Amino acid sequence: KGAYIFHQRERWATRFSIPFAPTSPEPFPQLTLQVQRTLCAIMLTQPASTLDACFAALYHAFWVDLVSPINKPENFLPVLSKVLGGEGVAKEMFEKGNSAEAKKVLAGNTEQAFQEGAFGLPWFVATDAEGRKEGFWGFDHLGQVVDHLGLERVGSGYRAML
Questions:
Q1: Does position 157 have pLDDT exceeding 90, yes or no?
Q2: What are phi and psi for residue 57, nearest 5 degrees?
Q3: What is the DSSP letter of 137?
């Protein structure tokens, strides 16, 4: 099953031009509590575009560069430093990530995910142009996300839709 899932991930990543390494980070899966708390601190103090850039940088570090274990500050803070404009800001966000406020945000985000039906990763919540919100589980359902959002299919479209 694991080999098949990895192959499916390769197919979808290629189709949607999502970069990733030919292997998974080791060990896998990994705990990410410190990273999540730090991202909550960033969410509380920085513009949304900065949070988006932090997610993108962490994704690339973990899934493309195989930085591991990603939850160790010595591994994820250098990644965030590049986005946040320096080591000092990244350390400040890490420290704020241990605050009651950031922990409360993470707990709220987790509860919201469960209320929206999340039961595994990746879990996507997509809201279309008419305000209809739906949850989708798994990379093999990206085509359904595209359809729900009303996005145009390029080329021959997605022939196999689950």
A1: no
A2: -65, -40
A3: E
Write phi, then psi, for 102 (nearest 5 degrees).
Answer: -65, -40
Cα 38 from Cα 102, distance rounded (Å): 8
What does the domain layout of the chain look like in residue ranges? 25-115, 117-162
pLDDT at 75 over 60: yes
Average pLDDT for 86-90 = 98
Per the prediction, the chain carries an average pLDDT of 92
Please report, as a single letter, which amino acid is at residue 160.
A
Residues in the chain, total: 162
The H or E element containing residue 127 is strand 123-127
Give the orientation angle of helix 48-59 with respect to helix 73-84, to 10 degrees: 130
CA 155 to chain centre: 27
